[in-house]
Amino acid sequence: MTLLPDILAYIKQEFPAEQHGRVTTLVDSAVIHDGNPAGPRCQRAALVGSHGSLEHLERLIADLKKDYRDVIVEGEYEVREKKLLRMQDLNQLFENKLNNIEK
Question: Whole domain around residue 37: which residue ranges?
Fold first, then answer.
């Protein structure tokens, strides 16, 4: 699978240059529980949820194999007032929403 341009741009923006190759390989080779490749939403959720940490990204990529929904929650949702609230829709391209990502 080839990564979408918005995902590649996000990797370049959020990770140190020396990690770009490893991050790209991890995200590009990510699979979900049934062995199918992880789609763009799951890839984006893993990247956002990692907060620029290679180690956290590795864990999230591994989590995709167990239950991709956990990774989507980590990337798209926040707990506020003891409630899980969706903060962003990672079905959308990063270019359409980079300014909306809360860090």
Answer: 5-98
85: phi then psi, degrees, rounded to nearest 5: -120, 135
CA 63 to chain centre: 11
Summarize pLDDT for 1-59 with one digit per residue, the tens: 689 999 999 999 999 999 999 999 999 999 999 999 999 999 999 999 999 999 999 99
Q: Does residue 10 fall inside a structural domain?
A: yes
Residues 6+ apart with CB under 8 A from 8: 24
In a domain, 72, yes or no: yes
**How many domains, the chain?**
1
Classify residue 75: in a domain, yes or no: yes
Under 8 Å between Cβ of 44 and 7 = yes
Q: Which two tokens stand for residue 47?
A: 């990247």
Q: What is the mean pLDDT of residues 58-79?
A: 95
